[in-house]
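Side project, low priority. Logging it here so it doesn't get lost.
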Amino acid sequence: MLEQCRDAKERWGGVSDLIDRWLQERQDLLSLFVSLPQQSIREDVIGTLSRFSEILVDYVSSWHFGLYEHLLAEADEFNDGGLELAKELDPRVRASTDEVLNFNDRYSNIDSLSVQEVCHLSEDLSKLGEVLAERFELEDQLIERLHTAHKDRV
């Protein structure tokens, strides 16, 4: 996933400040995601988990309430089929948002983790990793189609 993030940043970095900030959020999110399973129970896992949940929600929010709207406006302006792709992929992106919010609801405000909860956390992180990988792929497809195709005219 980290490699895909670097590839996306190379393709779209510098195209717009909005995309640059959003890609930096993605990279920050991935860094914390990768660090979580490697922490020992003695470390401040709960603090890291809380920070991760915060960045995770910020990341999906900035997509839905910023970048995606910008991309849709661009697609509408150029009217080259990008809106159809957005309508096709949007339900899958929204489904991943629901998964992210469920994870956040479960882990953002915990004070302690039992052994059983640690086992569930490991499973939930694994599932979340799959959800995020698919989401990043969908987001990248939308950016490629809705923005990069027009970057010289925007």
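Brief comment: Residues 45-78 form the longest helix (34 residues).
Revisit when time allows.
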